[in-house]
Amino acid sequence: MKQELILSIIVPHKDNLNGLDRLLKSIPEINDLEIIIVDDKSIDQASVEKISLKHRCAKLFKNNSNESNAGVARNIGISYSKGKWLLFADSDDYFISDKFDCLLGTIEGNEIKEIVFFPPINDGDMVGRDRTSGYRKMIDLYLSDGCEDGLRYCWSPPWSKLILKKIIDDNCIRFSSQKYGNDVLFSVKCGASAKYIKVSKCPIYAVTVRHGSLTSEMSPEKAIDRLNALIDRNHLLKKMQKQCLMQNGLTLFYSSFSWKKPFSAYHVKYIYQLMDVICQKLFCKNKVTPGLKNALKSFS
Prior knowledge:
- The protein has helices at about 15-25, 45-50, 70-80, 100-110, 135-145, 150-155, 165-170, 185-195, 220-240, 250-255, 265-280, 290-295, and strands at about 5-15, 35-40, 60, 85-90, 95, 115, 120-125, 160-165, 195-200, 205-210.
- By secondary structure, the chain is of the alpha/beta class.
- It folds into two domains: about 5-210, Spore Coat Polysaccharide Biosynthesis Protein SpsA, Chain A; about 220-295, no CATH class.
- The chain has a seven-stranded mixed β-sheet with strand order 3-2-1-4-8-6-9, with helices on both faces. Strands 5-10-7 form a three-stranded mixed β-sheet.
- The longest helix has 20 residues, at about 220-240.
- The chain is globular and about 50 Å long.
- The relative contact order is 0.12.
- Residues about 275-300 have low confidence and may be disordered.
């Protein structure tokens, strides 16, 4: 009987050959590891195959569905994965190679765990844009007072955390099919399903932020997708009787003022309902200001 693989690293990829090459080079070639690359309709298919062949642990699959986004690609990767543990990576990021032993040691440790969070580091060319600092703070908060809610419900990206595949399969958890924010509900459901979570102080993953990437630019399409994901997330947290203290959509709403087509009444109603609960916690002790109320009403 073939031995079960320890780890599957799932990588969605689209038209980022240099990033994919760098990512693969940051992963050591070990026997109990597989790298599942799911190409999401890249233009240069031949070059993707050529780069994939450089790493003996890499397996290349193609997204032949009618949909095209990272969430769909990750779901394909999950379906083909054979590892006991899953680790997700984006093709423009990379692993800190000399820390991989720390990752493997965490997997092999005797502690009971179903999700393990690692502090990510930032590597980008956009000054003042650090996508990782908030997640490091969540780990610090957990280590200082044992607070798990931030890790379980507010760590939306799938990267820099080990997830036991069993909890994904047993609870039928998958990424949503929208282009942006497809990881939000996935991460919340994983966090809610795990009985045992752990953290590591060892950084294993570097997140890049480049001009023109999906995470660096704001657009109406992105804002609507992300806000829809956050609405679904907060409705789920409400059912679980968890407070919605982060990622409430206000930044996306303010960005919409500069667009010709602002948010719909549905989205404005959602934000308006949250304001009395959230605004006093984030901005002031008073409830929604009259000026903001008038601005919200002008969109309804």
